[in-house]
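Weekly structure sync, notes
Attendees: PL, DS, HV (note-taker this week)

Item 1: diguanylate cyclase
DS walked through the input record. Source organism listed as Pseudoduganella lurida. Sequence as pasted into the shared doc:
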Amino acid sequence: MQQPDRLALLEGVLEAVGAGIIIVDDAHNVVLWNKWMDRHAGRTAQEAIGANLFDLMPELRGGRVEAAVAAALTNHFSSLLSPTLNRAPFPLYPNAAARARNQHDERLQQAIAVTPLALPGAAPDAPRYCMIQLNDVSMAASREKLLREQTELLRMQSFSDGLTGVANRRAFDVAIDREVRRAKRNGGVVSLLMIDIDYFKPYNDHYGHQQGDQCLMLVAATLQALLQRSVDMLARYGGEEFAVILPDNDARQARTIAEALHARVLAQQIPHAFARGELKMITVSIGVATLPPGEPSDPARLIGAADGALYAAKRQGRNRVEAALEDHD
Ligand SMILES: Nc1nc2c(ncn2[C@@H]2O[C@H](COP(=O)(O)OP(=O)(O)OP(=O)(O)O)[C@@H](O)[C@H]2O)c(=O)[nH]1
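Item 1 (cont.): predicted structure, written out as tokens:
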């Protein structure tokens, strides 16, 4: 049987392989440049072979690729250049049109291996070579990016209320615990507002659930717009009840903010013809409580006190702000 021409076969492999292969000698001159490189770098083997790699692609000078080539040629070290650290050091593009646009973010994302080449039987002082393999990992990188974005979205969704977009009950539970502990650690205060829409059941019953939803969204946006500090947290505590955590605000400051929130909702003038009070508009009742410095850090106690104040506001006719008793001293 006739033996295949192994050299021709090897050349065929080099041209067919789905990765870039460059071999440089110890003067960094290109001695091999495969078809894949031709396609993605826009230079033929004829143009590349014999030229210095770093003259062909000057932006590689002084970077990790040059260091890896030096390490391979001088010390026989192999290197893998992680695509996370160095996404696209070689100017390689998916096609000629992208290359012509010359935008860095259109480059192929690259996983690069730099390997010293030991030629079998070569004398110790024989010329040294180094092989640079380039794999296109753009697909994997964009999948990874998509996954990261989806994870972030899921994380956001699991902590925000689907209807109003403000923090949900789960986020509130985590935050109140954190803020109460922080206040205790720093010898500081933390205040809490419980806000409930008045006569929301008749609103829902008469205007319908969808308009009820619209009303909840508008009230949430109105409350949120007034809270300027990034540490303040508005959360949907449940149904038509909201909570606001006010770190570092004492009882007086918290009441001022509660009064402002109360007035701002009223100023929206959302008609509520079926409210049982005198005002035929959407109003809120707000309970205020403060955990003074030196008190045991107990979120349940703070929530209980704010809830009690809210209940008092409801009992006294709604559409008002009431503070927990202990704040009056
Ligand atoms: N549209 C809508 N309604 C909701 C939602 N969650 C809770 N509700 C409604 O909110 C209403 C709450 O009613 P109640 O707890 O009786 O309170 P209220 O009528 O506001 O009375 P007071 O609080 O005492 O002034 C109920 O009719 C619930 O169905 C929601 O996500 N969307």
